[in-house]
Amino acid sequence: MLEPSSELKAMIEAAQAAGEGLRKHFGQLSALGVRSKSGPADLVSIADEEAERTTHAILARARPGYAFLGEEGGAIDGADAARGWIVDPLDGTTNFLFGCPLWGVNIALADDGEVIAGVTYLPMLDELYVAERGRGAWCNGRRIRVSTRATLIEAVLACGIPFAGKPDHPLFAREMTLLSGQTAGIRRTGACSVDMAWTAAGRWDAYWERALQAWDMAPGVILVREAGGIATSAAGAPLDLHGQNVCISNGAIHEALLQRLNLALASTEAS
């Protein structure tokens, strides 16, 4: 792995510190003061909040002038008008609380809305994914690249399934109708951090999800791009971190996947 910048070093330190604290709380559903945010299936705990305080303290020490956007605490302005951290201290909270090891810490650095560095740390799997613009994507110090599978029929896709309180359930059902019979498989881990990192590493060939926030997708975007893949909106437009949807792939199957996602959207809207 190339020598990381001082900013990426701080991101790695913050992600690993948060991950170590989270590991101590893993699976302790009854002891974590769990409450719902937007609905009964959208959970948050004191573990999420502790992890965000940990990341903020380390990142603020490294670059005190940068803004900070965290899932739990919201936005904190910085003196630097261009650069800011984007943090999901615990992506996959429901997995975490119920004892499933598929969860992670997401940290990204954006410059004028464009992600220039990203870290996804999966503590229970001991996988640390990092990327900086123009410097490749890496997992545990080894270079990663997207898959080379070129058709949907040989591809394994990942997706986010809308749960209670989320929109677009009929649209998702239509997407499954159009895609499930034309792929080698469709997976859902319950953690955007995992699915995007695994797409960058070539384990999945593509991933899409709707009703996302910037902190869910930001590190995964640069991981996939630096691994040789593509990241757009779910409609194929240039990606907007605040657009609430994403589609990433190895590039080879991107147009075929988008065609079906757009057909599902059009048919759902027409019904």
Automatic annotation (TrEMBL):
InterPro entries: IMPase, Inositol_monophosphatase-like, Inositol_monophosphatase_SuhB. Mg(2+) 1 binds at E71, D88, D91, D216. Mg(2+) 2 binds at L90. This is Inositol-1-monophosphatase. Its cofactor is Mg(2+). The lineage of its organism: Bacteria, Pseudomonadati, Pseudomonadota, Gammaproteobacteria, Lysobacterales. Belongs to the inositol monophosphatase superfamily. It comes from Luteimonas cucumeris. CDD domains: IMPase. Coiled coil: none annotated. Its EC number is 3.1.3.25. One of its GO terms (molecular function) is metal ion binding.
